[in-house]
Design a protein that fits this description.
Layout lengths: L3 H12 L26 H15 L3 H13 L30 H17 L6 H15 L19 H7 L7 H10 L4 H8 L6 E3 L4 H4 L2 E2 L6 E2 L7 H10 L10 E3 L11 H7 L6 H8 L18 H16 L25
Antiparallel strand pairs: 1-4, 2-3
Amino acid sequence: MRLSLLVVVVAAALSCAAAASPPAGGKMPLTPDFYKQTCPRAERIIAEVIQSKQMENPTTAAGVLRVFFHDCFVGGCDASVLIASNQFAKSEHDAEINLSLPGDAFDAVVRAKLALEMECPGVVSCADILSLASGVLVTLTGGPRYPVPLGRRDSLSSSPAAADAELPHSNFTVDRLIQMFGAKGFSVQELVALSGAHTLGFSHCKEFADRIFNYRDKKDGKPEPFDPTMNPSFARGLQGACKDYLKDPTIAAFNDIMTPGKFDNMYFINLERGLGGCSTPTRSCGRTRGPSRSCSSTHPTPPSSSTTSAAQWRSSACSASRPAQRERSGRRCDTYNHGPNMPTN
């Protein structure tokens, strides 16, 4: 069901992506038909490759969306997270917070890039591939179809320190998240909407272990069997599923236990029923902070003009804060095709 909040989720997730990384010089605006002359079949090629990858491995959608967010939230949507470390320097890819990013997501981009190189070599940027792949996967999993502005250039730098410092962690308080997202121009409503991307995929038990094991009341420190805001049956089920998580850190649980492979608003509905694992999104949805209380709206509406205007405003705000030295487009996405920190001709 294409719900009002679902549209907000997409608008918020793509708002900085829409103009986060302008072409070198920063003067050419992004546009959906950027490759109309140089690589007219780019979107179709990417869609075909990504659809095949998603059918092969249904967890691809969640992985790509996560990589997309991790890329865009650190310096803009510039594909810096795709760069692999080498003998000279570590990259953003190897930041501690990025170590759990799924290989299938990177493989999807590699496959798309290879297919594009067969048709129009050295034309489509890796940042645009990741942006388009995310849009395709949202649609494939039941979400809306939306135009993706194109023309980004790829970063010439990639630092693990930046990712660890700028990306939100699962144990952050709501106030800290509001401050962090606010510093990048996001409202509270957009913060909550972005957390809705967790409707796809899973979380490792270590991310919410403090809610189901050795929990203590936040006010008086009294021990509790689990976080009392959780549904008791759900909490006990997680305790059973995650009992050996210290021995096996790969043990995980779906974020949305009802429709884990569908891009819908069931994640928010589950949170209000106490059926959420990670604590931060739960608090974000459960606390009364103005518009964030709309998180489980079930009234289907088409994209509103206000949502579109908000996305356009966010695009302009993000563009103004991004450096213009990005021009890495080449044959591969995991390396600097012309060397780091060196502009192309």
